[in-house]
C-alpha cells in the first residue's frame, strides 16, 4: 500500500484522502462533531455559507479569514469556543482560509475523504487504514499556498500511526513529514513554533493552539458523506 | 535577516534567491562552469534552446525531460558527462524539467539569483550571505510540482551553512528543511533515497546521484547576469 503526503494540496488522489488543517479548521471540525453537531457543511466561499442561512435552514456558521471571525458568522473557527457550546441537532456551516479549500480539492478525486487533526489522529489513521485498498494520501492544507510546519508535523504523526498498522511504500512527502514529526519536538512545541501558531498567539488565540496540540483525545473522524440533500458548492461531513 | 525556504517555487522573492534542483540541473550547471563554460543560458522551453542553435551561435545544448536526453540536444543534463568534457569558451544552453522553470520564477522578482547544489553549497551560502540586505530565499525546484526530498535536504544544508554565518529569522520551510537535513542521513543516503534519486538509478544514472552528493567540492556559484545581449526567454548565468 502506498502512503503519500502532499505538503500542499496537489490533486489526483487515491481512494482515501485525509485532509489536515490542524490550526484550526480540522481541529474545529472534530470539536463541532464532538459537541453534538449532526453534520458539517464545508463551503467553497463565505458567501455560500451566508446564503445557506438566508435559505432558512437550521444552520450555525463558523469560519475565519486570516484567523479572524467572518462578519455575519456565529463562530470564529475556534475549537476552544466550540467546546463551550452544545451543537446537538445542528448543522455547522464552515468556511476557512485554507482548510475548506483543501477539502474541496480532496473531494474532486478522492473516494473517501476524512478530516484529521492531532486531536483525532489515531482514530483518523485507523479509519484511513480500514478504508484503503489502493493507497492513502494525507493532504496538508498549508497557509495561503505556503507549506505549514503545523500541518506537516501532524501529517507525520498520522504517518507514524499508519506505519504501526502495516507496511507502506512512502513518497518523499511522507518521508519529510516523518522526519519533521521525529525531529520537531512535542506537539505543542511544533504547533506553537509554527508561523501559523505564532500568528494565532499574536491574535490572542494561543488557547486554540494549546487545544489543537492535544494528541488523540477524540475518536470522531469527520467523514465525507454523499447523498442528494447537499447544497451546491458544499461538502457534507458527518461523524464517523 | 530573514531566511525562507520554498519547498516549491512560490514567487515574490527578496533580494537574494538561491535556486536548488540538485538532481540534476543545478549540479550540472556548476559542472559546466567548472569545465570552462563561459556562460549558461537557461531557456523556458526546449524549443527556445533549439532555435538558439539554429541562429548559428557557438552553443552547446544540455537538457532532459523525465531524466532522458532531449532529441537534438548534445548533452543529457548529466554532471558526470559534463565532467568529461571541455567547455572552454562555449555557452551551454540548458533546458530541464523542473530546474530551469524554477530559475525563471526566481528571476521574476529576485534581484540576485544564484544556482546551488550540494557540490557548491558552502560557496553558494557564503555568496548569498554577502549579497543579501533584506533576506534570502532558497527555492526548491521539486519534481513535476511535487516536493522533492533531494531538494529539501539540500536547502537544509544551505540553511545550516547560513546559520553558521549569522543570525536569521526562519520561516516554516526553513525549519522543515533544517529538520530534514539533520534527520535525513548523509547526502548520498538522502539523495539516493529520494523518489528522484531512485528514478535516476532506474535509468542507469546512479553515478550522477553519487556525483551530486559530493558536498562543497566546488566554489563556482552560477550567478544571474544582466546585460543587453541575452536572447529572449532565456536567463544568462556566469561563474561567480
UniProtKB/TrEMBL annotation, chains A, B:
Class of this enzyme: hydrolase
Question: EC annotation?
Answer: 3.1.3.71
Keyword Magnesium tagged? yes
- NCBIfam families (alphabetical): PRK14100.1
**Which UniProt keywords are present, listed alphabetically?**
Hydrolase, Magnesium
Origin species, per record, is Deinococcus aerophilus
Q: Which family does it belong to?
A: Belongs to the ComB family.
Reaction(s) catalysed by this chain's protein? (2R)-O-phospho-3-sulfolactate + H2O = (2R)-3-sulfolactate + phosphate
PANTHER family, per database record:
2-PHOSPHOSULFOLACTATE PHOSPHATASE-RELATED
Protein name, entry field: Probable 2-phosphosulfolactate phosphatase
- What's the cofactor? Mg(2+)
Q: Which SUPFAM superfamilies match?
A: ComB-like
User: Does the keyword Transmembrane feature in the UniProt annotation?
Assistant: no
Q: Which HAMAP family match?
A: ComB (MF_00490)
Spell out the InterPro entries in the cross-references: ComB-like, ComB-like_sf
Amino acid at each position: 500500500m502506498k502512503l503519500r503526503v502532499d505538503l500542499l494540496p496537489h490533486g489526483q488522489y487515491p481512494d482515501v484522502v485525509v485532509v489536515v488543517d490542524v490550526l484550526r479548521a480540522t481541529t474545529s471540525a472534530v470539536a463541532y462533531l464532538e459537541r453534538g453537531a449532526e453534520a458539517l457543511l464545508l463551503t467553497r466561499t463565505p458567501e455560500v455559507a451566508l446564503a445557506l442561512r438566508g435559505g432558512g435552514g437550521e444552520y450555525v456558521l463558523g469560519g475565519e479569514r486570516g484567523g479572524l471571525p467572518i462578519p455575519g458568522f456565529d463562530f470564529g473557527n475556534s475549537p476552544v469556543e466550540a467546546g463551550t457550546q452544545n451543537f446537538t441537532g445542528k448543522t455547522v456551516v464552515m468556511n476557512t482560509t485554507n482548510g475548506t479549500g483543501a477539502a474541496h480539492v480532496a473531494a474532486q478525486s478522492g473516494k473517501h475523504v476524512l478530516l484529521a487533526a492531532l486531536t483525532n489522529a489515531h482514530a483518523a489513521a485507523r479509519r484511513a487504514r480500514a478504508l484503503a485498498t489502493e493507497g492513502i494520501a494525507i493532504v496538508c492544507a498549508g497557509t495561503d499556498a505556503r507549506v505549514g510546519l503545523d500541518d506537516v508535523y501532524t501529517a507525520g504523526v498520522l504517518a507514524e500511526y499508519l506505519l504501526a498498522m502495516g507496511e507502506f511504500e512512502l513518497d518523499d512527502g511522507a518521508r519529510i513529514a516523518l522526519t519533521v514529526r521525529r525531529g520537531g519536538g512535542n506537539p505543542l512545541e511544533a504547533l506553537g513554533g509554527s508561523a501559523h501558531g505564532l500568528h494565532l498567539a499574536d491574535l490572542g488565540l494561543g488557547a486554540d493552539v494549546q487545544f489543537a496540540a492535544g494528541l488523540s483525545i477524540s475518536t470522531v473522524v469527520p467523514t465525507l458523506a454523499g447523498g442528494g440533500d447537499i447544497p451546491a458548492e458544499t461538502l457534507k461531513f458527518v461523524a464517523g
